[in-house]
Model the fold of this input.
Amino acid sequence: MKKVMKIAMILGVSALLVTPALAEKKVRWKLAMTWPSTLTPLASPPLKIAKIVEEMSGGNFTIKVHGKEKHKAALGILDMVKNKQYQMGHSSSYYYKGKSISTAILTTTPFGMTSTEQYSWYYYGGGEALTKKVYDQFKVDCYPGGNTGVQMGGWFKKEINSLDDLKGLKMRIPGMAGEVFAKLGVSVTNIPAGELYTSLDRGTIDALEWIGPGMDIKMGFHKVAPYYYTGWHEPASEMHFFVNQKAFKKLPAEYQAILKIAMRAVAADMMYENFAASTEAWAKMKTEYPNIKVKTFPKNVLKEMKKTTDDLMNAYAKEDALFNEVYTSRKNYMKKAREWTQISEFDYIKTSQMVE
Ligand code: CA
Done:
């Protein structure tokens, strides 16, 4: 246990000054997640956290993970954790924007931060306290729970050459990006993962965005919609762990520390897992699926998407003080962080390409 406390302290995980006296206490928790149990890497963080917590507590603290197939309420995770049906949940914050608009921008925003910038904001740039403020309204704590990295802009049956090509298009695209597309004349719907391919194939929708090559290719979208657009809308979609505040307070201090360390470890791990899956899928795509046409939206379309995004954010900021606080913090942090991203990773890549 001493080791756990040390690691936790290094990561700035609090609640550690209590003496480690309750290590033998048996605690049995349940976690509900938005995803089916087989949908990795999205389902990976909760599945891995259950193993880590059990191992680090010597089998005394266990978490039973229920996938969507068990609880049948994919988008009801926050309520189930709030009501203590489950002590923990795994989902993504933006699914709950109907409860509080501030939850929407904790996941990602169109033209927003990259995953490195966003994690820096969360852990070292004031994001943790603001996230807590947003979720205190539900008596739930919310922690990073994995990141997809930059998502692709989606699969389209036809090429998009102008704003007119977007008008009347039926597309599955959630979150703020869905609201932006709706304002640009797209007929926006949200469809569960299991029905996406059929909807696209039958023409219920003309386009959809899902995640990135690692998860998209195995869904088969390219067979009916070969235009694969690069991303603008979900540059760093964060998954989230929800923890019932009362349940957390009841945990012995060592288990609190174990849980926090484990959440932080599996969140980062999902980002690597998804990056690796996309790396492999992208490499395979070129040779195995040559019909896929990779495109970037034309500049005039992107300009309108950006303007519509800014207008939408500013309108929400005017309406809601908490949204304004979170949005302003993120916007200011991104401005600062992007200069460093530009000169470090971005310029490094350009520099190394000069001698290829
Ligand atoms: Ca997506």
User: Anything to note?
Assistant: Residues 253-288 form the longest helix (36 residues). Confidence is low (pLDDT under 50) at residues 15-19. Residues 151, 209-211, 234 surround calcium ion (CB under 6 Å).
